[in-house]
Amino acid sequence: MLPFFRKSPKTQQEDIYLALDIGTEFVKAALFSVDFTSLKIAIKGYSKVRQHSSAMQGAMIVNLENVISACDRAIGEALLDADAIANKTYQRAKSPTERYPN
Prior knowledge:
With 102 residues, this protein is of the alpha+beta class. It is built from 1 helix and 6 strands, in the order E-E-E-E-E-H-E. A 4-stranded mixed beta sheet has the order 3-2-1-6. A two-stranded antiparallel sheet has the order 4-5. Strand 2 and strand 3 form a beta hairpin.
């Protein structure tokens, strides 16, 4: 089971998660919360930023500084779009054959 679908003890503050998708053409960032009673996800903020043309080539990082810059812009824009700040992150599996962390 994915870690954010496990029931967790009730806390005073709502946990906000960050999902970051680093693609060849775009970097996408989403801030979301999980309602563990209904297992529904609420999107708090989202952004999509175009990568610099020399940042990636064939799904491989060519210019790390450009990729980091695009990630920074995407996260910043998602935060501007959100009503809360992310306090937890999870890494997305790179392919369907890879497993999520336990």
